[in-house]
Specification:
Elements: H1 2-12, H2 24-32, H3 38-50, H4 52-96
């Protein structure tokens, strides 16, 4: 999974000439989290269409967010599995008494 992220990110990194604005990261995250107003979304999507380097940055953020989300799901699944195992162990311990 990590190698897939590295591959996606490396393919989509903006060129060194790209001058990222200070608020780009915040703007991208707000867009991905659905926190922009409709007119802001339109402006953002227009920028993606017109600025291919910015579009690459958005793709990188999406990839990173997806990996982080998957890691959270795996962690949650492991926690649920551990809780279920503890519960099963407790039931079996009570049967022996």
């Amino acid at each position: 999974m990590v190698s897939q992220m590295v591959h996606l990110v490396s393919q989509n990194l903006p060129t060194k000439r790209y001058k990222m604005k200070k608020y780009d990261t915040v703007l991208i995250e707000k867009y991905l989290d659905g926190e922009l107003l409709p007119e802001q979304v339109q402006e953002f999507e227009k920028r993606i269409q017109e600025d291919k380097e910015f579009a690459k940055l958005v793709c990188v953020h999406k990839s990173i967010n997806q990996v982080l989300s998957n890691q959270k799901l795996v962690k949650t699944a492991l926690q649920i599995k551990n809780i279920a195992q503890e519960y099963q162990n407790e039931l079996e311990r009570k049967k022996t008494f």
